[in-house]
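Contributing new records

If you add data, match the layout below exactly. Sequence lines come first and carry their own label; structure lines follow with theirs. Keep one chain per record. Anything else will be rejected by the validation script.
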Amino acid sequence: MLLSTLTAALLSATVTNTETVHDLAAYNGHVVACTEGGLELFTRAGRAVRTLTVDDGLPSHFCRALEVAGNRLFAATDEGVVAVDEGWRVEPVVGAKWHALPAEGGMNADMYRAALGWLSERLPAGSTYTAFTEGYLGTADGRVLAPGSGRMWTVPGPVRMLEETGGSLRVGTTEGAFTLGPEGLISLPVPTAPLAYAKDAKGGTRVLGAEGEARRWGERSGEARAVPSGATSTLELDGAAWAGTRGQGVFRRQGGEWKRVTPTGQLCGNHITALARHQGKRVVGTFDKGVCWEQPDGKWRTFRAPHLPSNHVLGLASDGRNLYVATMSGLGLYDGKTWTPMAYGGRNPVALGKLSVLAAVADTEDGVALVDGRGTSFVKRASQPLELAKRLPLPEGWSTHVSGAHGAGRYLWVASEDRGLLRWDGTQWTRFHDGKHLTDNWVTALSADAEGRAVVGTCQDGFSYFDGERWTRVRDAKGLPSRYVVSAALVPGGALLGTLLGAAHYDALSGTVRPLPRLADPRVYALLVEEGSVLFGTEGGLSQVDWSAPAAITQR
C-alpha cells in the first residue's frame, strides 16, 4: 500500500484563548479557571502556571463547570465530563455534554464518579442540562424540569442556577431571577443582564450583573462595581477574591482594586476562520474577534474594528508587503504601518461590488484577487496605496450566493452555495457542477493551485478532487470523519480536508482517506500548509501538526 504523503503526524502545539471563563474552583493548591480554551491553572498569589488542553487529555477545550469531590477535580466540557487528579492527569468519566455539574454533597471522588454515571444513564436525552438540584433540572433552552412529577416550566434565557429553599425553588437565568412556589413563577428585580450567580462568603446567593453590580437574591439594589464587568463566577480564598469573566479572563483582588491575572497577548479568539503567513508571522482570522499575528516573543497582537470593517474574518492573504483581510463588511488592508478599511458604499478605491469580501487570493497572475458576490477586483501586488489592475465580473445569471474563492497562477476558482464552481483561466470562465464534476453544488471549502489542481468540499456530500484533467468524487470514505467538509488544502499527491468531526488526508493515487490525529477541536475551519508542518484553525483554537512528504510523490 502506498504510504500517505502525510506521515508521522504528531501534535506539536496547541494555542488557545482562555479569556472566556465559565467557572472557578480551588484545587490542589491552585485556582483553576474553567475556560473556553481549557483549564487554566493559577497559583494562589495569582500567577498563571499552565493550561490543560486536549494535549493533556481534555475531550474539548470548552469547559462549562467545575466541582471538587474528595481528591479529584471534575470538569464538564462540551465533549464529556472528566476527572483531574493531583498530578493534573485527566481521565474521562462520562460522555454527557452538560453545562453544569451537581453539587458534590460531601461525597468522595469514587462516590461522585458513580453518581455522575448513574445520572447520565437516567437523564432524558435531547437536552443540554445547565443546572441541577435533587428535584429539578435546568436546560439551555430555558426549561425547568421536575422529573419526579413530570412538570415543566419555561423561563427566559438559559437556566444558570437552581436552588431549593424551603417550599420554593430559586431559578436564575441569564435574563432574570425567579421564585417558583405555590403561587407559580414570580419574577424578581435584577441588575442589567446577562446575569450570573455566585455564593458569598456566608453562603448567600448573589446575582451578578453585566456591568459589575452584585446584589443579594431578591433585593432591588446592590453594590456597584463589586465585581469586574461581565463576571460569570466568583471565589473567596485565603482572604483574596477571584472573579471569572465573559471576555476578559480571570481577575483577583486582595484589599485593593481588581487586577487581571489571565496573561495578556493571547490568541485573538478560539473560533478560527482563516490562516496566513505574513512577513514570517503566523496570522489568524476569527469568526467574531478580529485578526491577530504572533510576535517574536510568542505573544499575539490583535486588531479589531475600527481597524477592520468587521470582526468577522472570511479570508486572509499576504503579498509579502500588504496584508489583506477579507471580512463580512469589507476589506481591511495593512500596509506595514496603518490599517485602511475599504467597503462597497464607503471608501472603495478598488471597485468592490458588494459589502462582504469573501476571499483574498494573493498568487494569481493578474494580481491579488479580492472576491465579492458580484465579481473580482484584481489589485496590483504590493501597491501602496492600493491600485486596481482590473475588475472581472461574474457571468451574468450564474449565482447570487457566492461562498468563496481560491486559486493561483492563471487560475481563479469561485464557489457558490447553489451553482457549483466557476474557473477563470485568464481568458474565459468554465463551469463545474454536480452530477458530472462535483458531489454537490453547495460548496463550503475550496483549494486550488497554479498547476490546475483543485479540491472542493461540500455541505453534506463529501468532496471532489481535480487533478487538472479528471474529477474524482468522494461522497463518503472510511477515513472521512464527516461528509460536511468546511476547509481544504492541496498537498503534493492529494489534499487535506477539515470537517465538523475532524481532519483527514486524501491520497489521490490510491484513492484512500485517513483521519488525522485529534486537534484542538474537531470543527476544522482553516488550513495552512507549510514546509514541515500544517496549521489547523478550529473552533477551539490553533493546532500545529508536523508532517513530511515521502521521497517520491505522484501529482496526479
